[in-house]
Amino acid sequence: MDQAVAPFPVVDHQRVVFADGLALDCGAVVKPLAVAYRTYGRLNAARSNAVLVCHALTGDQYVAERHPVTGRPGWWENVVGPGRPIDTERFFVVCANVLGGCMGSTGPREEMTDSEGRGLGRPWGTDFPSVTIRDMVRAQKRLVDHLGIARLLCVVGGSMGGMQVLEWAAEYPEAVFAAAPIATAAHHSAQNIAFHEVGRAAIHADPDWNGGRYWETGRVPARGLSVARMVAHITYLSEQALTRKFGRRLRGASALTFLEDVFEVESYLRHQGSTFVRRFDANSYLTITRAMDYFDLAAEHGGDLANAFRGTRTRFFVASFSSDWLFPTSESRALVRALNAAAANVSFVEIQTDKGHDAFLLDEPDFHRALGGFLRGAAERVGV
């Protein structure tokens, strides 16, 4: 891999810019605030059919269309679209690139500004302030308000997207009729933080890291970012899925050598790493993984998770996957218990699958039927 190659081309993303900026939980203010987003379907006259989709760690706003950088299909095209569980013939779907991301929203790759919002002629890089999941949601709320939507029919997302869903329901309960947190948890576990730290350490150890100011050399820490992606990707799968897809098969050889022959699973991970560095920014990866690690919804509400939802009228759909060891079903059950303690309206399903954490992104008919049924029920309740 040529580390001198830019990770991805410049793309003119659709976005809205708020000149007054956003105050963050860390005490800093980012000014102005840019939120890049995409919409699908039409907003009805009553403005009551809006569904906000929140993306996961390495996702972005291109949820249901070809990606402008990779050319690959949208990351949730099997769920969002005409006749899909999130039906764009019925719903107005919004998806925004998170604060701290690298697909047009304010983040480490964007131009740094001073306290007055004046550009300083270089990227934020490691000077970008720490952000939280709650900060990301506040930025999304600015977008939703800008679009003239007083109440979302549903907020839905998996993994880190599910964390955002929970924060939406806790922070803006009157603005969320229904919430669907999928394959997620109310806090990041010590094990998940540990995996993230391995990825961050790989980036920091890359010879091209340059203290996070890698743009000055025209290079990117591609090797470190690639390793970070490889480590993370292992956690998205299950042992059964890896065995089924790769086993111990060698690529292009019948016997193992110490030269060029590799296991098929090694080749797969290397491909995942090499393609990732061409669409993602290393400083954004550090920023967003830290936001996930900091997330602890109970701690935000006096140490009692149920307090986050007391008095809520939001309807919840919680889904987990049996082979997901990154966000296991036990985490979803803990969330459901807290929602029950808060007397919330909640339904829960565990989908039986061997596909691991990534199952929410893949072809899982039982999950699609359950999510689609929940959304249709919510729509009927509000007359959409």
UniProtKB/TrEMBL annotation:
It is found in: Cytoplasm. It catalyses: L-homoserine + acetyl-CoA = O-acetyl-L-homoserine + CoA. The keyword Amino-acid biosynthesis applies. Residues 50-362 form the AB hydrolase-1 domain. One of its GO terms (molecular function) is homoserine O-acetyltransferase activity. Pathway: Amino-acid biosynthesis; L-methionine biosynthesis via de novo pathway; O-acetyl-L-homoserine from L-homoserine: step 1/1. Transfers an acetyl group from acetyl-CoA to L-homoserine, forming acetyl-L-homoserine. This is Homoserine O-acetyltransferase. It comes from Caldovatus aquaticus. The gene is metXA.
